[in-house]
Amino acid sequence: MKEVKIGILGFGTVGAGVVEGILKNGDLMAERTGIRPVVAKIADLDVETDRGVAVADGVLTTDAVAVIDDPNIDVIVELIGGVTIAKNFVLRALKNGKQVVTANKALLADFGEEIYRTAQENGAGIYYEAAVGGGIPVLRSQRAGLIGNRIESIYGILNGTCNYILTRMEREGLPFDEILADAQALGYAETPPDLDIDGVDTAHKAVVLASMAYGAPVPMDACPTAGIRGLSSQEIDNAEELGYRIKLLAIIKDNDGEVELSVEPTLVPEGHMIASVSDSFNAVFVKGDIVDDTMYYGRGAGRLPTGSAVIGDIMEAAADRLNEAGVPVSVTMMLQKETLAYCPAEKIEKRCYIRLSLLDQPGSMGKVMESLGRYNISIASVVQKERHTGGYVPVVILTHKAKEVEFASAIQEINSLSVSEAEPVRMRIEDFES
Amino acid sequence: MKEVKIGILGFGTVGAGVVEGILKNGDLMAERTGIRPVVAKIADLDVETDRGVAVADGVLTTDAVAVIDDPNIDVIVELIGGVTIAKNFVLRALKNGKQVVTANKALLADFGEEIYRTAQENGAGIYYEAAVGGGIPVLRSQRAGLIGNRIESIYGILNGTCNYILTRMEREGLPFDEILADAQALGYAETPPDLDIDGVDTAHKAVVLASMAYGAPVPMDACPTAGIRGLSSQEIDNAEELGYRIKLLAIIKDNDGEVELSVEPTLVPEGHMIASVSDSFNAVFVKGDIVDDTMYYGRGAGRLPTGSAVIGDIMEAAADRLNEAGVPVSVTMMLQKETLAYCPAEKIEKRCYIRLSLLDQPGSMGKVMESLGRYNISIASVVQKERHTGGYVPVVILTHKAKEVEFASAIQEINSLSVSEAEPVRMRIEDFES
């Protein structure tokens, strides 16, 4: 039986999950693959706290560098998080020719190019399934099962916290702030919650997915990002009445050779599979030019689900090392091109949901329609609700497809109209046509 | 750039799809992986018919054995189907030490053990992603991404024809025979349709999934199989009223170390993701002890989707060969044990839907309840519909969990009651508790 010696950096939630998984099923993995995973070293600044998993004497250490430099260790698993120390450690391990496994989406989003190139130059591999979609083997599906496909589009629910909040808002009809506070109390949302609810975490994952789909590192600033902070229950209710649900989506498309990329709250038809993804689950829809629609669903976070993905990577990294497979596809796929062409804002088209609060007097609606018409935005449906107190009525408009830049201009113009109270709310509608 | 030389046996629908995919995206695959796929030979008895894809001179041949024996060919792709010639060719290729890719579920279900052992003995690999779930990378997810998981349960919609028929019956309210005839006319169902609608095709795929999950070849007779032939619209309507949909499910569970396995039409809660899988799409729910619930969704058949899975396998087989990786996990995972323990019928428990046609007279229902009680079957709900013509009333019973063998005895007893007209209809209800 061959063995793979693993050095884990960071003994937090996921680190403990990985160790637990290997303790539990290490024998099974050895039976299945012929390779026995052995946790040789675990480095953490805190070697005292009980993580609830058994660790043999001499395995725990505070000296991460010694683990990275240990010639007996085949695979380094980075589970520290952040982009400073983690980056140094990952680069050092790759320069040592180690196989590296990481769950660190921020690190790949911000410094992916440097990391992939360092791996390539040193004949090493970096594996990062756990960075996107937690336990869901979605990157592996892209780089193995779908390797023969040009990727036409990817739609992802990639942040469990946001999906949990949206699901509860929908079910319970309570306001965003209240659900968020409760989610924080229950440990489903971080404090502060910014990275999650402002969409940044989703964007980190989106750029990794897009990089793999189109073959070059994608910078974060190529991904316009909006989160769900302060989303009103009115939007949830209106969407439901109209046959939609609101999801925070990562949207990645090949627009005639140019990459369209964004993270934004989006109305999705309630009959579509992605609308059924609830609570803290994640899901990724991938459409390939050969395979057509596929979807991958599972837990996007958590000690064991993320641990499952890390373990899958460890075993692949081990097999690649034992077979002297060289630089793996998880690296070569990210470095096919120097750079990508991105779809300029002027070319991006979408459908939108627009909610206005209009002065309840003749001509109000006419002025709005005039503005929309001026920017070539045509209307699919309009619902005017009963009058609110204060002489304003809520109006909900669903548009046909129009240009993003024209939406922006039209909304600005409508906002400046005297008949419009408060800033209009606008969200994307996605019908998954491509 | 490295090259992989491919020999394809069988130039039918899927064969042409594979060639089309490689023609279309071969450059992309080479860029991504560093390996260029080259279709060196295609063997078919018919080398005249135009398959709509360009093939270079000298590639087409009627001599399959020459292709299998050609020392220049690295990967043999078996797309002939059936279990006679295909078996001989696959075994011969493995004995030649070739990597073999197949989409042939019947072959693996019937002769998997011999094939995996031949691969192992000859240091070769057999890859068969396309045999289960068409284009969906579900086997690869099990043997790579989820490699660290003990599989607790698998629920699969694995036959697109059945799912298409069920979806249309549900939407259009038309009888089974009519939809089947239409599906045949449209090319969505084979003539004769037996393998699909009697559940045999689903069972072929179920035993492959179960073999991989639990580590030994599973014989077809370990999988009790019922299809959807003659399913009445009444069942579809009743299920809908009760908040369920009917799906033909492959059900695979680890029951305390014993494998429970079946293929049967099953009522699934309409809110569950698997209920949203419609038309000819397939989906597989896999629950691992570490990763928890995951799901994989996509097209279960068709020239290009199946071609996509075959191409993924070709590229993996090529990489394994170039890296001298030896016998792959797709073989070792199937041969961990000599044999598996199966859950005996006396231990299998499920919930059921039962539809009876009862004489509309006092005491009828009492007799039925008495029979159910005698076999320890307790009732979750009963709906008695209005009287039919002829003095019989339809009664629908949803039970709690009870033993399969007791259901069988109770139904036999009820069928013999003078108050019961026609044979009772019984189907599983699955709540996905584990």
Automatic annotation (TrEMBL), chains A, B:
Residues where L-homoserine binds: E190
Record's keyword annotation contains Amino-acid biosynthesis: yes
Annotated NADPH binding sites: K105
GO biological process terms, semicolon-separated: methionine biosynthetic process; threonine biosynthetic process
Family: Belongs to the homoserine dehydrogenase family.
Involved pathway(s): Amino-acid biosynthesis; L-threonine biosynthesis; L-threonine from L-aspartate: step 3/5; Amino-acid biosynthesis; L-methionine biosynthesis via de novo pathway; L-homoserine from L-aspartate: step 3/3
InterPro entries linked: ACT-like_dom_sf (IPR045865), ACT_dom (IPR002912), Asp/hSer_DH_NAD-bd (IPR005106), HDH (IPR016204), HDH_cat (IPR001342), NAD(P)-bd_dom_sf (IPR036291)
Keywords from the named record: Amino-acid biosynthesis, Methionine biosynthesis, NADP, Oxidoreductase, Threonine biosynthesis
Binding site for NADP(+): L9, G10, F11, G12, T13, V14, G15, A16
Residues annotated as domain ACT: 353-429
Protein name in UniProt: Homoserine dehydrogenase
Pfam families: Homoserine_dh, NAD_binding_3
UniProt KW Heme keyword: no
Active site annotation, chain numbering: K205 (proton donor)
NCBIfam families: PRK06349.1 (NF004976)
Protein EC: 1.1.1.3
CDD domains for the chain: ACT_HSDH-Hom
Superkingdom field: Bacteria
